[in-house]
Amino acid sequence: MSRPDPDPDPLLGTTVWDKYRVDCLIGRGGMGAVYQATNTGIGKRVALKFLDRDAARDLDAVARFQREAQAASAVESAHIVQIFDAGRSEEDRPFLVMELLKGEDLRARLRRDKRLDVAEVVHIAGQVLRALDRAHEAGIVHRDLKPDNVFLCKRDDDPMFVKLVDFGISKVARKTSNADTLTRRGTVLGTAYYMSPEQAQAFRDIDGRTDLFSLGSIMFEALAGRPPHVGTAYEAILIEICTKDSPDVRQFAPEVTEPLSQVIARALQRDRDQRFRSAGEFYEALAAAAPGLLRTGGPSGSRDALLSGNVPSSGQPARSDAADEGRIATVEGTAVRSRADAHTQTRRTVVVGLVAALGAFAITVLLMARHRDAGRLPPVQASAPAAPGASVEPTAPAPVPATSGESASADAGEADIAPRPPAATVTHRPAVHVHAVPHAKPTATAPPSHVGGVASGLQLNTQGP
Fold first, then answer.
1. Sign of CA pseudo-dihedral 167, 169, 170, 175
2. Which fold would CATH assign to domain 103-329?
3. Which fold has domain 8-100?
4. Among 133, 144, 166, 211, which one carries the catalytic annotation?
């Protein structure tokens, strides 16, 4: 006897808001379902997420549903699912209009493959940190980070492009709240395996470091094939998380390097003050521990240490991932810029060397010209220094020692600039006769106004000391 067909889904084939035609069911969850739909006005395919009828009557469930829309819309990141619209259907069921994602979530991937290799885990974690960086900067703490909420999109440029989804129990850290908030006193929200100790104990001052703990747990499970803390019941897992340190991931995945295992261990510290201070700082440590494996740029700019440069801080205004791609701020981009700077410096060195060589050549040409011109100049009459009370008169030619020109140049400090005249010219200079004249002041012959082959502004000193 055949089973009766289940009741048909009343939403299939209907048009919501006279705009979105519901085409097919994508999946169901604890409080609702997600459908593929088409915007009939422009033909764009989207996802519609509906609360089921029972959840629609639960004020807390409706508040969490609205919180998801507000939180995701408050953050500008390519790694967070986009929400385009929100409203209620004719049956008064709340719904969200979201971008349609193609691929699978990390939970489905782990069910199929059990474990991922190091490169894949680092690639996924780097993108999650980019999303968390933006969310935390906007004051949004996800608080339910788990493999189910890490969606791996299939894109032409990346078969594992990460999108974070389901901000339903997120906390808006920078907004004031009263006692009647989504997380009431004594109530624990989240998934046990990935919950931080402070969240497991329902602390009131949860901040972004709880998401970093959750990501550490996800990385541990993706590498080791099991979460860092296990137990037979929800409460037992929470006790393990609060009372025992996480094991070393290399016990289950020996291929993991020590630096990477230390990064994961720091993210899983029970004392949140011992964890990374921000998603940016976590990203930098991950990039250093697994060089070359991050295929996307990091969270940009150094906000409290990068973020401390990338990294830590969260006081800057929200910015888009497109701006991030043009900056930094990444490890691979930094390496590329460093190589480019090295090439630029090499080119500058070559140019400086060429300029210096040309300058030396020009000076050599000038000096050679001066030697050449000196042979064509009329004989230079050198005057010996007159003694006090003496007059100077030229008389018959007489030999002049060549050393007198040497000492003049040397004493003037110009031996390297103005070469001495050829010896043949010096030996034919006229002799100098000195006649004493009482009370006469010393006189000297002025140097020539121009000497061939010497640059403008330079003069040969032919006078003695």
1. positive
2. Transferase(Phosphotransferase); domain 1 (1.10.510)
3. Phosphorylase Kinase; domain 1 (3.30.200)
4. 144
